[in-house]
Amino acid sequence: MKPRYLLTFAFFLPLFAMAAPRLSETLIGQWHYANAKESCTLTFHPDGTFAGTVSEKSKVIWRFAGRWSVSRNLLHYEYTSSSRKETPRGTTDEDKVIEVTPQHLIITAADGKRRTYERVKSGR
Known about the structure:
Order of helices and strands: HHEEEEEEEE
Strand content: over 45%
CATH architecture: Beta Barrel
Helix content: 10-25%
Structural class: alpha+beta
Shape: globular
Radius of gyration: 18 Å
């Protein structure tokens, strides 16, 4: 009996994989994070580019853009522009994706801090 269940599972597994959206597809769109000190708005475009801003006390302190990609649960960034000299063009970064749903994105950033981004609905 067990081999039949295994065979059935093996048959349907590719169908389940095709139905589940890829991580990169679920990231596309605009996301917002805020804590008591700062906020960040980040947009992932379908063409593999991203853009964002970091603000403190409602004042933008950093504007950036670049290329993004995903491998397994790692989100890779390569900055092609940055208003901060500490992050020059060509700098790379990586966040670990903990969870992504249609409403939120939870990451562990390169600095080790966990952040929860909320998806920005159209028109915000």
